[in-house]
Amino acid sequence: MPSPAATYELGKLHGGLRLDAHKSASTGLPIQSPPLPDQLILPIEQHVGEPAQPLVGIGEHVLRGQLLAESPGTLGAPVHASSSGKVVAIEPWPVAGRRGDHAPCIVIECDGEDRAVESADNPAPWAETPPDDVLRKILQGGIVGLGGAVFPTAQKLMQATAGELEYLILNGAECEPYISCDDMLMREHAREIVGGAQILLHALELDCAYIVVESDKPDAIGQLAAAMTDAADERLVLKQVPTIYPSGGEDQLVQLVTDREVPSGGLPTDVGCLVQNVGTAAAIHDWLRRGEPLISRITTITGDGIATPMNVRARIGTPVAALAQFAGGYTDSARHLVIGGPMTGKSVSTDRVPLVKATNCILVLSDLPQPGPELPCIRCGECAAVCPVQLQPQQLFWYACADNERQLRSHGLTDCIECGCCDLVCPSHIPLTYDFRMAKARIREQEDEKARAERARRRFEARNERLQREQREREAELTRQKERAKQAGPDAIAEIMKRKQQDDGD
Amino acid sequence: MEFERREAPYLAPTANVAGIMQQVLLALVPAAIAHVWFFGPGLVFNLLIAAAACVGGEALMMRLRGRPAASALSDYSALVTAALLAFALPSLTPWWITATAALFAIIVAKHLYGGLGFNIFNPAMAGYVAVLVAFPMQLNLWVAPRMGDIDYQFLSVLQTLQYTLTGNLPDMLTYDQVSRATPLDAMKTGLNDLRTTAEIRSLPLMGDFGGVGWEWIGNFIAIGGFWLMIRKVIRWHIPLGVGAGLLIPAGIMWLLSPGTEPSPGFHMFSGAAMLCAFFIATDPVSAAASPRGRLLYGAGIGFLIYAIRTWGADVDGVAYAVLIMNMAVPAIDRITRPRIVGHSNNAGAP
Asked: What are the CA-CA distances from residue B148 to residues A489, B37, B100, B224 (Å)?
């Protein structure tokens, strides 16, 4: 019988912040189910990786769970219809994307019947399915990392199985303020998480999974402990971590739980760890046990701009406006709409954006304090004190201003996880995270530029070399002919001359 | 519905420069009260003159640099420079010396290097050294502390003001009547005269550790400094570094030769050592960047204070120690870069 009580032995995380949680506002109610929206907007790309291709046409009727878009190959994740209805458009739509404000979306006019597609194969019990087939099955479920990074889960698992894995880490350290969807999931669906952990252990052929929860979530810990007691699976260990932002960052969590540092530019699998969000584990469970692909997720609607903050399980593609309305609508003070948390989320200008697989939080805030005026850096070092990667943001900022790429690299710009801690503590109110993001983009651009120049240079050199080779070959041929002529002796030359004269004469 | 866009993070910042500077000023208040109690109201006059010159100089330089003066003045950093200068200068200082120091600090040491955040040298110390070199006689004129000396002639508020404005003592008073050697001076001359530390320490101007009055001001400076640490306005690295850099060599030498070496306590509570540890060396702009760097930077200052006091010509040496270590900051930053998580060394290469 495993002890379900949480254990503590922890590695040390540098820096971080203890932030006001602002979570209790949205955890008062159980997870709510909003009604089906009139329209579903499904971005074709809801993951990091290769873009998916639409498989349906405009005017086509689709059923819940029907495949709408798929990526060629295994890189990427398919998109399923979240409800039944008619495809009315495939067009660019406002989204809270990392790459732009608009993305191609499949728009479905819901018929309200919510009819499910006939399940082609009755899922075999996963425990009897070979691990490889389980992974393939997970791929078909359109499951991506629900912690916000939306990396296709199947791809992550397949990459992981290539290396030497020791631990599966289920991330329930929901460290960003306001967000409580994982907390509510753990409270209400601990069994599904435990089930998902068992499926993952089977698929990865591992025998140790840590389920990691922050210390400020006693209810979630209690529910998980109970579910683990019921499961009586000795491979599962519940771990408790201190409530420090950003302990839930993938690399940070690995460091906290295993005391191993993910190497710069590497992945947790490089140190034998695979991290999955608890929500992802539950989604895997739902897909393999109930045959339901990833067509809904739990999201937190909160902030002082929302009348009744709550958590909802909503269909992917539901417009944010519909969810806000369900949560009592906006308060008079609502000014900013943030998709994601207050530290790393993205502010959008319209609530027409849909809920996507990555949306763990819809945050509506009243007037934020005006940024600035930005003062000069006084090198107080607070940014360095809170940086979880132990960077020196004050030095990076200096080099970012000077656009000194070499120093930026050597001071670890690419190791910055953009958690926003430095930004928050900066007494000069310098938008450090934004500046670093811009500097990274500039470096990437320069790299692309360099790569292009390098390609052009190689082409040019290859052409030169070819021309020179041809020249050399021609010269060699000429010399050979001369040699041959010489060897043939004066008679042959006389004969050639004679033949030439004859030719001329004709 | 339409919304206004912003860049993350969407939480209110936790600190601001003006708040930090205000807290530094507030932390100096207990020491200032003690200073006025022991040495008369001179500090207040110095402070007013330095503040006027610093603020005026800052406004002038911002104007000349074509920038809004209000943004620089609202950060209170000029007032911190003024306060540090007021503490560093003798309580009897003619106004033009104070003004010169303040203007040199703000115009040359701060704005000619690019203003707040870009100055290599601690402005207050640069300004202090400028007048120390230019007006050595006046800067060695310290009044005796209250309770120190029965023969001492106290100056009234008006007399102090008169001296500050004119540079002349009131009629009937001589320098000998109002001024006394500082504890560091007394120690240095005493040792040069081949007296033992015990003999020197028995002089009426000596207290338990340092000089009468001086050590109390030191206590209040330390209280203010610890308050700043609790408020996380300053971190512990630099004060500890300065303390260790000064006390360890002083302690070793004192243990080896207690008759000819002043005690570590005397060093810490005399001159500007305490002020340096908590308020001068902790100026972040001109200090090293990383925690380890700051320990090293502080230790360098502490050791230089000891070295200058023991083997140098200047009696205190705090200002020189700070300026010398200011110059060493780029090198310190280079050798003390923290190891980035996920990197195997601190050169930054993966």
From this structure: 124, 12, 31, 24
Q: DSSP letter for A26, please.
A: G
**Best residue in A98, A390, A438 to probe B by mutation, most B CBs within 10 Å?**
A390
Closest listed residue to residue B27, CA positions, set B241, B228, B280: B228
| Residue that has been written with the tokens 């670890």 in this structure | A412
Contact present, B116 and B176 (Cβ < 8 Å): no
Judge whether B13 is closer than 8 Å to chain A, CB to CB. yes
Q: Collect all residues with Cβ–Cβ distance below 8 Å to A371 and sequence separation of at least 6.
A: A429, A431, B6
Residue A375 to residue B13, Cβ atoms within 8 A: no
**Which of B340, B343, B345 best tests the A interface by mutation, with the highest count of A CBs <10 A?**
B340
CATH 3.40.50.11540 in chain A, residue ranges: 24-113+128-315
CATH superfamily of the domain spanning A24-113+128-315: NADH-ubiquinone oxidoreductase 51kDa subunit (3.40.50.11540)
Segments of chain B scoring below 70 in pLDDT: 148-150, 345-350
Interface of B with A in 19-38 (CB under 8 A): 19-20
B257 CB neighbour count, 10 Å cutoff: 10
Strands A85-94 and A102-110, how do they pair?
antiparallel
What does the pLDDT look like over A109-151, one tens digit per residue? Answer: 999 888 888 765 556 677 777 888 888 888 888 888 887 767 7
pLDDT of residue A233: 86
pLDDT at B348: 41
Nearest partner of A355 among A309, A305, A321, A331, judged by Cα:
A321
Instruction: Say which residue, A484 or A439, is predicted with more confidence.
Output: A439
CB contact under 8 A, B348 and A410: yes
Chain A CB within 8 Å of residue B149 CB: no
pLDDT tens track for B169-211:
887 888 877 888 888 888 888 888 888 888 888 887 888 888 8
> Residues near B233 by Cβ (< 8 Å), separated by ≥ 6?
B20, B23, B24, B27
Residues in A closer than 8 angstroms to B20, CB to CB, are 378, 380, 427
**DSSP states along B220-283:** HHHHHHHHHHHTTSS-SHHHHHHHHHHHHHHHHHHHH-TTTS--HHHHHTSTTHHHIIIIITT-
Q: Which of A278, A207, A274, A213 is nearest to A5 (CA)?
A: A213
For residue A415, the model assigns a pLDDT of 92
Structure tokens that stand for A71 in this block: 């990526």
Determine the Cα–Cα distance for residues A506 and A503; give it in Å rounded to an integer: 5
From chain B, pick out residues whose CB is under 8 angstroms from the CB of A382.
15, 232
* Pair A393, A350: CB distance under 8 Å: no
Assign residue A303 a region: left if phi > 0, alpha if psi is -120 to 50, beta otherwise?
Answer: left
- Quickly list DSSP for A126-186: GGGS-HHHHHHHHHHTT-B-TTTT--BHHHHHHHHHHS---EEEEEE---STT--HHHHHH
